[in-house]
Amino acid sequence: MNNTRLKSSLSNLVEESLNKQVELEDLSSQFYLSCASWCEIQGYQNAAKFLYEHAEEERMHMLKIFKYINAVGGHALAAEIKDIQTSFSSLREIFDQLLEHEIKVTKSINHLVDLCFQEKDWGTFQFLEWFVAEQREEEETARRIIEVFELIGEDHPQGKWLIDQELGKMVEGGGSSAEV
User: Where is the major localization of this protein (predicted)?
Assistant: First the structure.
């Protein structure tokens, strides 16, 4: 088999940046998975289900970029993910961190879009438009969850239970919008 790389319309810089995004999406999936596990053992079944679904969605985002890189003649690289947080002090801590993480992902996607504009890589620019819209939704969802914490409060005798119930409603009303 020939190991010669086919020509690609991707610049080396765009390809490298897309591979970094693959790593970030994989990290996102692993982080959501870790959060889901913590919630499950703490008895937050709806939160766990919500987070398991989002872990899978983040994995689908990763695969979407991974497959795109290869489809346009690049070389997608599987990342090694280390040092995932596995313990949390509260359910609120998880969702505060998830909002921060989603903002980080949004900034990374925006950087990629800007890079594609500078490199005049219109195909990748167009490909990334889906991720721009997806990140707006991800941040909005994370903010809505934080608002639930603010409205109900964890200090309320049934606060944690009510919050978990609200997360269950989000799972029932939503679903993964990721496509591979």
Answer: cytoplasm
Q: What pTM value is reported for the model?
A: 0.88
93 is in an annotated binding site: no
CATH number at residue 59: 1.20.1260.10
Residue 5, in any domain of the structure? no
- State yes or no: 56 annotated in a binding site: no
Is 61 known as a binding-site position?
A: yes
Spatial CA neighbour of 94 closest among 145, 162, 153, 22:
145
Residue 137 annotated in ligand binding: no
Q: Which domain holds residue 35?
A: 12-173
58 is an annotated ligand-binding site residue = yes
Backbone angles phi and psi of 136, in degrees to 5: -60, -45
Give the model confidence (pLDDT) of 134-143 as tens digits.
999 999 999 9
